[in-house]
Amino acid sequence: MTPITDVEGRRLALSNLDKVLYPATGFTKGEVLHYYATTAPVLLPHLRDRPVSFLRYPDGPDGQVFFTKNVPPGTPDWVTTAEVPRVEGPARMVLVQDLASLIWAANLVTEFHTPQWVIAAPGDADRLVLDLDPGPPAGVVECCRVALWLRERLAADGIDAFAKTSGSKGLHLLAAVRDATSQQVSEYAKALAVEAERDLPRLVVHRMTRSLRPGKVFVDWSQNAARKTTATPYTLRARPEPTVSTPLTWDEVAESEQGPVGSSLVLHAPDLAGRVREYGDLLAPLLDPATAARLP
């Protein structure tokens, strides 16, 4: 029998709570839902007002994994949806605005991915993102070195950068921006990536070409395009273990840049409660319009 629970006045049927989704650690679907419920105070502000794309893995990361942009069949009528412009024509997508819709979505077993703009202004960027993706044998240590260079370079333009793990192999750098289109932010981000490659030629590559990437960090600037999305802060990832895209302090990045402690930057769902108690939301400044910078 599927349990029914009340979440902020909404009745939700939560299925297969004992199902193990991450066999390496025995992490269950019930624990996934508990993680999202307890992380909601810091996660929801980064989801709110942004159309959500879901990476679904109902049988765990080793099973079928598929990306959903349109409103899933069976979505309750109380879940907020909005029409979103796309190159191929408008589509209706979900907005996760509250705890009830977060738990409903988490019951589908999802990663959350969001664009760098809000639904009130599609294509007008309020965030800049740089995805640092290491090509083996490079790893997170090399990503940290590149992140520190980019932080300093962004600061020279009056832009404060914030770091989080991707929840996979690399790091994401985020910054709040204003008065810029997605196209303008993409062009600026590409210029940064090209400059990083020029300054750190043995460490950085700005092109996606696979043959160029072994041993280097690919600075992916393309996720600033209006049609692209990035893993939302605090989302679980569809990896062998329940890793989370976790905000970091710059001290953690600097310490990891020094060597093997970089492995400590792989954060899992059980790690987050303590981190949130200690730090709060390290990405909260991204939500404050007063921190947003104009591009040079």
TrEMBL record:
<dbReference type="InterPro" id="IPR052171">
    <property type="entry name" value="NHEJ_LigD"/>
</dbReference>
<dbReference type="InterPro" id="IPR033649">
    <property type="entry name" value="MtLigD_Pol-like"/>
</dbReference>
<feature type="domain" description="DNA ligase D polymerase">
    <location>
        <begin position="28"/>
        <end position="258"/>
    </location>
</feature>
<keyword id="KW-0436">Ligase</keyword>
<dbReference type="GO" id="GO:0016874">
    <property type="term" value="F:ligase activity"/>
</dbReference>
<dbReference type="InterPro" id="IPR014145">
    <property type="entry name" value="LigD_pol_dom"/>
</dbReference>
<dbReference type="Pfam" id="PF21686">
    <property type="entry name" value="LigD_Prim-Pol"/>
</dbReference>
<protein>
    <submittedName>
        <fullName>ATP-dependent DNA ligase</fullName>
    </submittedName>
</protein>
